[in-house]
Amino acid sequence: MREDLKVYDNVLQLVGNTPLIHLNKITSGFKGDYHAKVEAFNPGHSSKDRIALYIIEEAERKGILKPGDTIIETTSGNTGFSIAMVSIIKGYECILAVSSKSSKDKIDMLRTMGAKVYVCPANVPADDPRSYYEVAKRLHSEIKASVYINQYFNNLNIDAHFNSTGPEIWKQTEGKITHLVACSGTGGTISGTARYLKSKNPEIRILGIDAFGSVLKKYHETREFDKDEIYPYRIEGLGKNLIPTATDFDVIDQFMKVSDEDAAHTARELARTEGIFAGYTSGAAMQGLKQYAEEGEFDENSRVVVLFPDHGSRYMSKIYSDDWMNEQGFFDAKNELSTQDIEI
Ligand code: PMP
C-alpha cells in the first residue's frame, strides 16, 4: 500500500483505524469530554469487519484455511456482510445460514457480496435440524475444508478487539480515556477493548449497554441466568437470550438497559445534532451514555469514549422511517425528521 498517496491494494486494508469524533451538541450540559468511535468508517460499515478479518487471518496463520475453503456463520447482519467481504478478497466460499425472519434486503445484500445464503425457518427450536444453528453445524461437519466462525462462542472475537479497537482508542486519547461506553451483543467488542484498556490503566470504567428483554445485565450482577428477563425487543445486535462465552463479564464494571423507543429517538438525534448517521445500537449506546450521565457517573475530568457499531443506512426501513416509528408508537413531534411537507 502507498501510505503517502492513500492508495490501497484492496478494501481489507481499510479495516480498523476508525476515527474518534468529538461530540459537540448532544452532550451539551454534561460534565467532561465526549468522543465517539465511529465504526461505520470500516469498509463494511461496521465493527464486525475487525472480527471477520482477524478470525479468518488467525485460521490462515494456523494453516486451517486454504484458498477455496469455506467459511460458515449464522448471521444475516453485520458479521455476515463482513465475512462475505473478506471471503471475496481472499478467495473463500462464504455460507451464511440465516433465519427466515431476515429481511429480503439483507439477504439480497449478502448474495450481492457473493455469499451462499441458506434461509432456515425462524419458528423452530434452536436444536431442530432445520434451525440455522443446526444447519450451520451440519454444513461445517459435512464440508471438510470449512471454518465455523461461531462469533458468540469464539474467544478470537475478544482477541480481535484486544488487538485493534483497544490500542486504537488508547492511542487516540493519548491514554487519557477514563470511561468506555459500549454495547454488548456477543460481547466481543466491549470485552476485548476493555481488556486492553484495563491492561494499560485498571481505573478506566467500562460501561456496558444492554436491552430490556435481554439477560446480560442481570447475569453480570448475579451470575445467574434468569429466563424471566427474556422477552421480545426490537434493537438488533444488542443484548442476548443466552450467555455468550465471548463476553468477559469480569472486565465490565456496570450494565445499563435502554429501551427500544429511547434508542431510536437518540439515533435520530445523533443525525440531527452531530451529523453522524449511525445504526440503532449506536443510538442505544448514546442513550445509555445519557442515562449514565444522569446517574452522576461523569465529572469535569471524565474523558469518555462511546462506541458506535454501524451505519444508519441499514436501518432506513426502521428507525429512519417515520412510518415505522409511527407503527411502533414511537413518534413525537420533537424528533420528527421532516416536520412539514412543503408544497411548491
Ligand atoms: N451493534 C450491532 C449493530 C451489532 O451487529 C452488534 C453485534 N451483534 C453489536 C452492536 C454488539 O457488538 P458485539 O457483538 O461485539 O458485542
Provide a descriptive summary of the structure in words.
The protein has 344 residues and is an alpha/beta fold. Helices cover 35% and strands 15% of the residues. The chain is built from 11 helices and 10 strands. Helix 7 links the parallel strand 7 and strand 8. The longest helix has 15 residues. The model has no long low-confidence stretch (mean pLDDT 94). The site of 4'-deoxy-4'-aminopyridoxal-5'-phosphate has 16 residues, from helix 7.
Q: What general outline do the C-alpha atoms trace? A: globular
Element-level helix/strand string = EEHEHEHEHEHHEHEHEHHEH
How far from one another are the termini? 50 Å
Low-confidence stretches: none
Strand order of the largest sheet: 1-2-10-7-8-9
Small ligands present: 4'-deoxy-4'-aminopyridoxal-5'-phosphate
Instruction: Describe the largest sheet.
Output: 6 strands, mixed
Return Rg in Å.
Answer: 20 Å
Helix count? 11
Care to count the β-strands? 10
Q: On the 0-100 scale, what is the average pLDDT? A: 94
DSSP strand (E) fraction? 5-15%
